[in-house]
Design goal:
Blueprint lengths: L11 E4 L7 H12 L5 E5 L8 E4 L11 E5 L16 H16 L5 E4 L4 H8 L6 H9 L5 E6 L2 E5 L6 H7 L2 H17 L7 E5 L14 H15 L3 E6 L7 H4 L4 E4 L2 H11 L5 E5 L5 E4 L16 H16 L8
Parallel strand pairs: 1-2, 1-5, 2-4, 3-4, 5-12, 7-10, 8-9, 8-10
Antiparallel strand pairs: 6-7, 6-11, 11-12
Helix pairs in contact: 2-3, 6-7
């Protein structure tokens, strides 16, 4: 591993996620490509991992690793690619908690999470959370967090996420919108190094409601929040018509697009950079990134999984850790 100044920062903790998915394969491919330039340690059962590893007992040993560093966490059942074992569900959950402890204790500079399979966790361990994000918020005792998807050309934040479209109008409240914008603005300053972030906020309805003729959410909910936050010094434009926010020239006018629902945010970024998008959780007391894809059971074990999004997630976590004031582990 290189002995540059970068290695003096604590490494990234990489939780294994669902071992029957593609996570362990792309972790290996990421290590082969990065070769320690971004130090990370995989938390997993060593019997599940193909190829050589450097088993470590704590994070301080990562710098001496000659193969992919691995912090062994025993799982009760063997791994079969594409077929999650219910007996392993609790261990998947426990590995996430272990990663959180490492970063909150200062032994890791950030947490990067490989994909989980929520149904497998629910079936095998009565997992009560909708996903990674909510579980991490519970571990950190944080009431509200924000999901950001990021790639080099675009950052997007959906205000409402995994709900039916018909429910968006009910869930889109002034409080939710204001909290989302505040958390996003703060994270852009503290973790992305943008002193005065520019936030572009989409409307909910076509043409941002067109003066109330296509819906009143812009008038009744969105505009009052934006005016209040502008009055407090935030650099916000909107509500904008979503259909004109994402072309190349428009994207130069903001640092993040705040969108009202899942697909309004995710369609543009996945169109621009399907393989390289990164999921970032804002509002946690630590850095967390994740590749923007699932377990891909259909290709698990076939050697064809693409590590691009994981590599991007590791790079972003490392960059964020370097920008964060007083980051864990120091430089």
């Amino acid at each position: 591993m290189p002995s540059s100044s970068k290695t003096r920062r604590a490494p990234i903790a990489l939780s294994c996620g669902e071992p029957a998915g593609i996570g362990l394969e792309i972790a290996r491919k990421a290590w082969d490509e990065l070769q320690g330039s971004i130090p990370f340690v995989l938390i997993a059962d060593k019997s599940h991992v193909d190829g050589p590893v450097s088993e470590v007992s704590d994070m301080s040993e990562v710098a001496q690793a000659t193969d992919m560093p691995l912090l062994h966490h025993p799982f009760p059942a063997p791994n079969s690619p594409g077929v999650p074992a219910p007996a392993n569900a609790q261990a998947v959950i426990d590995v996430i908690a272990q990663g959180v402890k490492l970063v909150t204790d200062g032994q890791a500079s950030a947490l990067c999470t490989l994909p989980i399979h929520k149904k497998a966790l629910k079936d095998g361990a009565d997992f009560i959370y909708p996903g990674h994000t909510e579980y991490l918020a519970a571990l950190a005792r944080v009431e509200r967090v924000v999901m950001m998807l990021a790639c080099p050309d675009l950052r997007v934040v959906p205000v409402t996420i995994h709900i039916a479209l018909e429910q968006v109008k009910t869930d889109l409240t002034e409080t939710l919108l204001e909290d989302t914008i505040r958390i996003t603005a703060t994270a852009l300053q503290t973790q992305f190094g943008i002193a005065s972030p520019r936030l572009a906020v989409a409307g909910l309805n076509p043409h941002a409601g067109e003066g109330g003729t296509m819906g009143r959410e812009e008038i009744d909910v969105i505009t009052p929040v934006l005016e209040r936050l502008r009055g407090q010094g935030l650099n916000i434009t909107g509500p904008r018509s979503a259909d004109t926010m994402f072309h190349e020239a428009a994207r130069t006018s903001y640092d993040v697009a705040v969108c009202m629902y899942h697909d309004q945010a995710l369609i543009p970024i996945k169109t621009l950079d399907f393989a390289g998008g990164v999921n970032v959780t804002l509002g946690l007391p630590f850095i967390r990134t994740s590749p923007d894809h699932g377990t891909a059971f259909d290709i698990a074990g076939k050697g064809i999984a693409d590590p691009t999004s994981l590599i991007a997630a590791l790079r972003l976590a490392w960059d964020m850790a370097g920008r964060t004031s007083g980051c864990h582990g120091g430089d």
